[in-house]
Each structure stands twice: as C-alpha cells, then as structure tokens.
Design goal:
Hypothetical protein af1432, 11 helices
Length: 191
C-alpha cells in the first residue's frame, strides 16, 4: 500500500478529528526526524498510523487485544484506551501492509513509552504530544524544547509532564512510563 493509499484508508476508518490529529503527528514527526537524523518516511508512516486502532471504541479494545494475543495488564484493564497503541502496532501489517518492526515498535510505545526507546520511538511519542492540533497549558513550552534540547532531554521533560498530568487527574501512572523516565535518568547519571 502506498502512503496515499494508507492515508485514504485511515481517513475512511477514523473520525475526522482523529484523522486530522494523525496527519498532524505525521507531519510533526517528519520535522523532528529531519532535526534528529531519523528516517523521514518511517517517521511519517509511524506518525500517520500511530492511532489507527482508535477506530475501535474503548469497550471493544480488550476483545481486539485478545484477538491479537496481547497481554492485558492491570493498568490496561482499568484504562482500556491504552490498548489502542498495542493493537495499532499489530494491525498496521494486516490493514495497511506495513511490515516494519521499527514502525510497529514506535506505534506500540507512543502512549506509555518504555525503557531504552529508539530515536523513532521518542519522535512519535513527542510528536503525539505537540502536533499543531494539540492545545493545552504548557504545549508551547514543550514545542520550544525542539530548538535547544537533545532528543533525550525532550523525552525526559515530556515523560515528566505526562506523569504530572496523570497524577493531577488522580489516575493510574503506567509502570512503563515510570520505567522510561527512570531509564533516561539512570543513563544520564551514568553517562
């Protein structure tokens, strides 16, 4: 499937606002890929398809996860929306013809992150937070990081902000998010 075909198929499957967000993430991912020396086509495709499983309603996600043999942890059981990242990483091959482990992993990690993320993983995670359609307090500060910070510094700030946001909502913090942040800090300290 060509990128144009992927775009058309995604547009057919997603709500208008979710599709606009996906285009925003794809374009932002390309900008970040240029800056940080990452494959721009992979960044675009991963950004475009990162939310492809959002075609499913939250109550459908556990059944879809089981269909793909995805383990559902305690946090995902309580917050099934998180499953869309794991499901998306599986369906990109089936629906969009994308058989690329790096793209799949970036989609899998775009919501809660993980320790030892690749540059592509970091770009998709961050592009999802700062794409032009995002409008929340502090987003401009996050966008400005691109001008002066390394990718790891950007990710550390993004993870910290994400954890603070979730804690302030009195919601569950995914252990992978904490582990991703700790990994960056431990490697920064040990560097």
């Amino acid at each position: 499937m060509t990128i144009d075909e992927m775009r058309r198929e995604l547009q057919r499957r997603l709500k208008k606002s979710r599709f606009a967000h996906s285009i925003g993430v794809a374009n932002t991912a390309v900008t970040l890929a240029k800056k940080f020396g990452v494959d721009e086509i992979k960044a675009y495709v991963a950004g475009l398809l990162h939310d492809c499983a959002r075609e499913f309603e939250n109550d459908e996600l556990p059944a879809q996860a089981e269909r793909y043999g995805i383990e559902i942890g305690e946090v995902e059981r309580a917050l099934p929306l998180l499953l869309h990242a794991y499901i998306g990483a599986k369906i990109i091959k089936e629906i969009y013809g994308v058989d690329d482990a790096e793209i799949s992993q970036a989609i899998h990690r775009h919501t809660v992150a993980a320790p030892n993320m690749t540059a592509l993983d970091k770009i998709i995670y961050f592009a999802d937070m700062i794409e032009p359609n995002r409008n929340y307090p502090g987003v401009e500060n996050l966008r400005a990081l691109v001008e002066t910070k390394t990718l790891d510094e950007i990710l550390l700030t993004a993870l910290s902000e994400s954890i603070i946001f979730v804690v302030q909502k009195n919601s569950l913090v995914h252990p992978d998010t904490v582990a991703a942040r700790n990994f960056l800090l431990l490697n920064k300290i040990n560097a």
